[in-house]
Amino acid sequence: MNDLEMCRLATRAVHAGTRTPRPDFTPAVVPIHPSVTYLYDQMENLDGVFAGTHPGYVYSRYGNPTVTALEEAAAILEGGEAALAFASGMAAVHAALLAVGARAGSTVVAAQDVYGATYALLDKLLRSQGVETRFVDVTDLQAVEAACAELQPAALLVETISNPLLKVADLAALAQAAHHHGAAFLVDNTFATPCLVQPLALGADVVIHSATKYLGGHGDALGGVVVTSAALHKELFEVLKVTGGNLGPQEAWLVLRGVKTLPLRMRQHCKNALAVAWWLEEHPQVRRVYYPGLASHPQHALAGRLFQGQDYGGVVSFDLAEAGQERVFRLFESLRLCLPATTLGDVCTLALYPAHASHRALSAEERARIGIGDGLVRLSVGIEVVEDIIGDLAQALDACL
Predict the structure, then answer these.
(1) Is the whole model's pTM more than 0.90, yes or no?
(2) Strand pairing report for 107-111 and 155-159
(3) What's the sign of the alpha-carbon dihedral 349, 222, 31, 80?
(4) For residue 333, is pLDDT > 90?
(5) Rounded to an integer, what distance in angstroms lies between the CA atom of residue 160 and that of residue 172?
(6) Which one has a higher pLDDT value, 16 or 316?
(7) Does 360 score more than 70 pLDDT?
(8) Which positions are catalytic?
(9) Cα–Cα distance between 199 and 187 in angstroms, integer?
(10) What domains appear along the chain, each with residue ranges and CATH number?
């Protein structure tokens, strides 16, 4: 008779089934571990985990087995020594900046057309805390070099493929400029994914993903991941412990499931996006198409070298001719297959209006300065049959005349 059998029913109800024997098997699929805390037979082992001298888990803010599995997968995909998962892509961006030294009195150089929330983080929150940011066109290497030389920044932050104008960053050259002036080089690789390029191999110190997007790929989990060196991982972990932006085990499991099909999905995303970009370029209602796979894209040759001439990403942006918010809204309301939704990287095609969604935090003047006009539309091209995607875009463009 064990100790629990000696207890009363209400006590047994609380503890029954929680002390199962340690298995001698390994599940084929990573389990979801929702436990907040963990038990050890020997208190010395628990003390060792707290001290970092014994492997294990003590509290979910310090780590979780399901989350660890995702972190290991992300590090392998990006070719990094270690990774840390966060509750969102923005939590990952914020923590990465703090870990590399973005503190009061420091400076950051960042791409001028970064994701709107990243822009707001730098221009509003961090600026209010004494971190100054210089936004530059990272396709102008001389401007980047000049800004780094003048400011000696803690970090240079860019996106491999920018959101939403799809500019392509010369990662190797930017890494050289950052390191020449003692700055950490941070790359948001969300749009490209490790299927197109692994920035660490080109000199990046930190790679960031909104795991909500292509890594998860199904629009059902919010998360972020930072991949870096073992040394910087320690700094990042200290930031995570005190700020608490942890990814939950359920979300980690969903993202990890999505990672299993990432290369297959990205291949179809990219193939469809190129076909949609070609079609849009010929459409009379479209003034300009932004897609690195088009010969008309200013960094098409760079993209070919960076992505090894294979694929160019799953996002296409375009300017609707003579359009403002009213006409863009009519276009979105006319869509029947494509979904007007505020995310990207999902298996289905998604349409977003940057001026009122991803870049709403910017003023109209700020958007105009970096080239985000009132007629700009961003398409995250899904994995549907491409003729169906184009057919829906065609009828919607006709309907919004």
Answers:
(1) yes
(2) parallel
(3) positive
(4) yes
(5) 11
(6) 316
(7) no
(8) 61, 115, 188, 213
(9) 7
(10) 43-259 (3.40.640.10), 262-399 (3.90.1150.10)
